[in-house]
Amino acid sequence: xxxxxxxxxxxxVPVLVVVVVAGLAVAVSYWVLRAQYEKDVEESVMSLKQxxxxxxxxxxxxxxxxxxxxxxxxxxxxADPRVQALCIVDLARGQAVxxxxxxxxxxxxxxxxxxxxxxxDPNSERRKLExxxxxxxxxxxxxxxxxxxxxxxxxxxxxxSKGARPDMLRGYIYLDLSRPALEAYxxxxxxxxxxxxxxxxxxxxLALSAVAVFAYRALQxxxxxxxxxxxxxxxxxxxxxxxAAVLAHEIRNPVQALQYQLHSLRRNASDPERVTAACDxxxxxxxxxxxxxxxxxxxxxxxxxxxxxxxxxxxxxxxxTIVDEMLRSTQTxxxxxxxxxxxxxxxxxxxxxxxxxxxxxxxxxxxGGGGRITITVGRDNxxxxxxxxxxxxxxxxxxxxxxxxxxxxxKKEGSGIGLAMVKRFVDNFGGSVSVESQPGQGxxxxxxxxxxx
Amino acid sequence: MAQAPCPILLVEDDPSVRAGLAxxxxxxxxxxxxxxxxxxxxRFLADPRPAVCLLDLNLPDGNGxxxxxxxxxxxxxxxxxxxxxxxxxxxxxxxxxxVLVDWLAKPVAPDALLRxxxxxxxxxxxxxxxxx
Lengths: 453, 132
What we know:
The complex is a heterodimer of chains A (453) and B (132). With 453 residues, chain A is an alpha+beta fold. Chain A contains 11 helices and 11 strands. Chain B has one domain: Response regulator (Rossmann fold), CATH 3.40.50.2300. The interface between A and B is medium-sized, with 19 and 16 residues.
């Protein structure tokens, strides 16, 4: 069950994130569109009202719209698909300009009916809009009728003489709008906006989802890596603790045996046979302890080997400062041929230095004094390459075969472990070492290590 | 040694230690039978019957504690000195306390070993005397 959950968690959480983000994007888009639509409806209402007023404003304060004016208004307003019904309730004269698109569209006969209809269906697109005198337009109309500039005062006086006031409420305009037509109109006008909102919303959703999924996977990966590193650390400590405990345990027995032999030696010092036997046992036990320590150290060393990217050019340059003094003592020259671009190999830097030192030391001892050692860093067949050549007497074919085996040496100095160590070093990192030599013409050691990617 | 020789059973798997111990004990007048495994040690319990057993715990065919418990259960007139590489004091078995004389941590110094074996032999003889 736990494994099942762990497997699906990797997919479930990103999917949930996408769903939540998409849901939010849809909700926000809907909210934006809704607000825009409502604003659009209000704008429709206002523009339609203005058009009605446009027809009405040319009429004087007491004029009833003549029949042709009413017909003209009706034909113009009904040309707009949004308009279902329209009427004007003049507070002074009652209903005027009743028009409707179809017989089944209700139309109020008076103000009370209008209020009832609005109350009965507050969600409909029915509006009761105020119709007021407009002094400016009255003045324009009077000027036109009298073919002279009528002053604002004259217009106001005319109004006041008829018992009216500027800005007085003259009546109400009733508008019934068709919702499908409004929506169609909205879609027609706002299509570019809608498409932009949809595209933006979609893109944002995708981008946010991608970021969320990526972040979640990255977090998961980080947690996994951390967990693995912790396990490795624990494992390593446990293993080292184990080997130390095993060493301690293994060493007790020979120590105990040694104590008994010493005890026996003291007691039987006069018996040459017993002394010889005790000494043999002591020697044997001491080498047993020595072997145990050596094995333990070798094991420890293998445990602490740390592969890392190493710039071979830098490593060889660093080596120069170490071996310079040593080479000067025998007048041996050192030439380093650096690569045109950095060559980075995967190995343990400390062990690489030791291996290179062994090779240099080996060359120096082979030449016996003077001579020249050349270290070339480069690439060879997809591997990092270090070649170490000397100008010594070369290596005979009989020696080449066992050159990299421990304790095989033709030299007077050294234990013959150096080249074996070089071999073990390259083997550890999946590399290789080979030697090329002609008697009398020096020798070249080819070191190959895996390149860092 | 004025007293009668105290027969000792030595159970130890490491040959050098076994040889050294046997040598040491016989040098000090004890008669020693050496066993390399738990099974061998169990066989040597019978005849001739040892008075003291010097027991290593970590044996190739089992834990020396098994032998210790067996001796206690069968109520054998045998005193046991345990030698162990790990000083696991908490392993001291309560049910075998009366046969267990000492618990020595390896490496055991010769003097300490001889002292422990000597005490075990005294106890074993006391037991035998009481039993007779």
